[in-house]
Here is the input.
Amino acid sequence: MAYLSSLSGPSDLRALPESALGPLALEIRERLIEVVGTTGGHLGPNLGVVELTIALHRVFESPRDVIIWDTGHQSYVHKMLTGRSAQLTTLRQGGGLSGYPAQVESEHDFVENSHASTSLSYLDGVAKGFALTGAADRCAVAVVGDGSLTGGMCWEALNNIAGAPDRPCVIVLNDNGRSYAPTVGAVGAHLAALRSGDAAPIFEQIGLAYLGPIDGHDVAAMEAAFRKARDLSAAVVVHCVTTKGLGYAPAENDELEKMHAISPPAPPSVTWTDAFGAEMVSIGAARPEVVALSAAMVGPTGLLPFAAAYPDRVFDLGIAEQHTVTSAAGMAIAGLHPVVCVYSTFLNRAFDQLLMDVALHRLPVTFVLDRAGITGSDGPSHHGMWDLTLLGTVPGVRVAAPRDGTQLCALLHEAVDWADGPTVLRFPKASVGAAIPAVDRIGDVDVLRADASRDVLIVATGPLTGAALAAASTLGTSDGLGVTVVDPRWILPVSDDLVELASGYDTVVTVEDNGVHGGFGSAVAQALRSAGARAGVHVLGLPQRFQPHDARAALLAANGLDADGIVARVRSAVGAVAAPA
Ligand SMILES: Cc1ncc(C[n+]2csc(CCOP(=O)(O)OP(=O)(O)O)c2C)c(N)n1
Here is the structure.
């Protein structure tokens, strides 16, 4: 790693002779493969941008020039070239380097959102800002993938950027032909036609300058193109053609996803995603009207078995959550029952579409929110800690949080049976765990543990019921408290059965891994107040702060959402003195 370890920042890179760049690229790839193989992360995308990132940092002078990475999952090489190579081993670990650009890490990181397709809007704003403040010596540059270019925000931004083509900015299009999967639709087809020289660039037709297609693994060619783009002093697209996973055979040979995102080595287990994916196949067999939709995440949301069984009934709409949700509404109007599979955090994108285009029309669309709650190593933007707050404001939506695999299947069936408006299921990125049987059911509410003495009622949601039961057991044996634990299954709107049950308690504790503001517990508290119940409701959830990247278990514990944390909160709620160990 002689070259790599000699670089403390981009100026060192600019000082290297051209002959050093090939060996440097090899060193970077070697380190990526070694480190990301252990930490997990976005291996394929970063292997594909090694030369592109070298060329960018040799031509543009960050941080004077502002380089914006769309999504940011492909910024590991940028991190290595901006002084963070030694820390790469801490990638995505608690306290270590983020898997996305992060302002706290470096003055070279401007944008850290990790939600796709925003870069051209940032670019438009930065370019306007430079123009208005007279910063003519500074360049605004965005790197956007062909997958991210399927997102509507990119086209809203291009409408403005190409509408003022004399305002300088550089769009580096990193075209590897893929999102996770091959890029869908007309954007993918047009870029393929440009690669083979069979089309006139749409970018030119709408007013942008266009350079390319350029071999995105030829540093000298890209440096020349970037210089030309910079010197044009106009809005310009540089079309670089790269190979995702280049230089690592297992990634290049991975036909499904080119090792887009890999997990650290771990013992095999059945995840919530797997369990959902398997049940969708049987639902598909029984119900021909059920179709599945995904915004460029067919594999990651567990839909591959459904896609294999019913290829005509699965739709990848591109990185286009807003469009996906309203398109699902259209399918429901046409008599289908769409199941929209999306990560919880990306549902934020399509809130208005869910509210107005689905719920207002009482359309039968089921939303399956993977990665709900604490997600782990992807960090602040990926934790699914907002969905219950948003969903709680949507009239007529029913939300379920299965506690185990059996409930996941049961609730999914109940969801696709529901014809009067949207339904939502939420589950985390985790192993599905052992079944948690009910001892009783009151209406829709499962009773998981019933104590005759009514000191405390714990209302747990989803997989946190396991921790709630462990806490109840400790509180029973160590503190002599009578603790009943229930799982409402359908958690929003708060059911009358739950309100009636909770009315018999002075102390009600709710447990959820959503933000505490406006989530499940807050809805329970409001429902009990409206019913004139005497109970004090103690809401256990995530504080309304962006959560860092770390393992799910570590973050749940840090936020008091493990068994010990629940015990401590219940003790303080009932004013009990902890029994000696
Ligand atoms: C709004 C949103 N939806 C979905 C994702 C998940 N996601 C992360 S990267 C990615 C594919 C990006 O493809 P592309 O921009 O071509 O970059 P590449 O990985 O191919 O370099 C997707 C769908 C996301 N980050 N943001």
Notes: The chain is about 40% helix and 15% strand. The mean pLDDT is 97.
